[in-house]
Amino acid sequence: MSLLEVERLTAGYAAVPVVRDVGLSVERGELVALLGANGAGKTTTLLAISGLVSTYSGEIRLAGASISGLAPARRARAGIQHVPEDRSLFPSLTVDETIRLAGGTRRSPEWVLEYFPALRELGGRRVAALSGGEQQMLALARALCRDPSLLIVDEMSLGLAPLVVNAFFPVLRRIAAERECGVLIVEQHVHVALRWVDRVYVMAGGTMAASGTADEMRPKVDELTSAYLGEQTAPSPVPAPAGTHAVDSGS
Ligand code: ATP
């Protein structure tokens, strides 16, 4: 039994399906990327898993239990945490306040900050004054405070420099392995995704067009790019940082 199982999911807006018959799965400890050109349906698929858009048919199971009919808050209680594309942080709160609010009174966020030690230095700074990379760290840390079994991250790399993006991926891998949670991300750069993730799904026109392990997909990257992903240039080859244990401050 996979951690997340999505079967024949059809979902959309105002009774108009925009994703059709989508299937995917995520295992515990696994990092999975959803790829696709603009408008392919990636965000809608993530939102449907979290219960934030209407689902017209299909089945979504978390740890074997159906969550298809559950409201977003109940899916969150069941273990799903969703970091949206805009990160949805409150600009006037400080880093400390954001973490404290997310953790509640019972949970210590100390283990969360071990993944993002740069946030320790930024405790009193307001969200509005953080760089894009720092905001993404905080959004991920806030989601982690709820100790999710499934962490969903939409467009994690959006607006971030390649160096910063390359620092986030090892942390996501560590989180998946150490917290035994599944991590499902939307990534705009296929080359980056294939360097770091375990498996990828490729969406096109609201349906699932291809899927496979990163090892299987790497030799097909040019084919995938021209068939489904549009023009993409490989980001400059920034090496993985040595001692890939945490994300440092940066933008
Ligand atoms: P991008 O990479 O550009 O974010 P995506 O693959 O995440 O694209 P979605 O955002 O899921 O794609 O959009 C899929 C389709 O659904 C698009 O045609 C889009 O115009 C449409 N869509 C998205 N949000 C809404 C909405 N709130 N109401 C109506 N249609 C929408």
Record keyword descriptors for this entry:
single chain; 251 residues; alpha/beta; Rossmann fold; 2 domains; 6-stranded mixed sheet; 4-stranded antiparallel sheet; globular; binds adenosine-5'-triphosphate
Continuous helix count? 9
The bound ligands are: adenosine-5'-triphosphate
Query: According to CATH, what is the class of the largest domain?
Result: Alpha Beta
Summarize model confidence as the mean pLDDT: 88
CATH superfamily of the largest domain: P-loop containing nucleotide triphosphate hydrolases
- Per DSSP, what share of the residues sits in E-state strands of 2 or more residues? 25-35%
Principal-axis shape equals globular
> What structural class do helix, strand and pairing data support?
alpha/beta
Low-confidence stretches: 232-245
How many beta-strand runs?
Answer: 10
The biggest sheet, with number of strands, parallel, antiparallel or mixed sense and barrel status, is: 6 strands, mixed
**Strand order, sheet with most strands:** 6-7-8-3-9-10
Q: What's the gyration radius in Å?
A: 17 Å
End-to-end separation in angstroms reads: 39 Å
* CATH fold call of the largest domain: Rossmann fold
Q: What fraction, in percent, of the residue positions are helical?
A: 25-40%
Order of helices and strands: EEEHEEHEHHHEHEHEEHH
Number of domains: 2
What's the CATH architecture of the largest domain? 3-Layer(aba) Sandwich
